[in-house]
Specification:
about 120 residues, 2 domains, mainly alpha
Length: about 120
């Protein structure tokens, strides 16, 4: 019970305000804001009503319900890691292209000054 209260207070004091400020700063789209809000509320519901995890486990045909939750969480974390890696690679390529353009522009401006 103490852990449930601590997690709930943490989410209410830190996660929700951070989520809202990110939305206000336009760091999150309205769709992303709603998705994250639903995920956090669903997490709180599962923390307060852990028997709901049993329904998830039964629907996946897993013996221990928490196993189903852990499996889904692991798959999500691997997917999120993969998406972040793709975005990092894309940003790295963009930075390389931008650096090349700046270097070429600098070379061209130096050549014009020399003439």
């Amino acid at each position: 019970m103490i852990l449930q209260i601590l997690v709930t207070v943490g989410v209410l004091l830190f996660v929700f305000p951070n989520l809202y400020s990110s939305f206000k700063k336009k760091s999150l789209t309205p769709t992303a804001f709603v998705i994250w809000l639903v995920c956090w509320v669903a997490g709180l519901v599962l923390i307060w009503f852990p028997h709901l995890i049993d329904l998830i486990g039964l629907s996946f045909g897993v013996g221990r319900s928490i196993d189903a939750f852990v499996y889904v969480a692991i798959v999500y974390l691997i997917y999120a890691s993969f998406v972040q890696k793709l975005k990092t690679n894309e940003i790295s390529k963009d930075i390389t292209i931008l650096n090349r353009k700046i270097a070429l522009k600098d070379i061209n401006s130096k050549d014009k000054k020399d003439v």
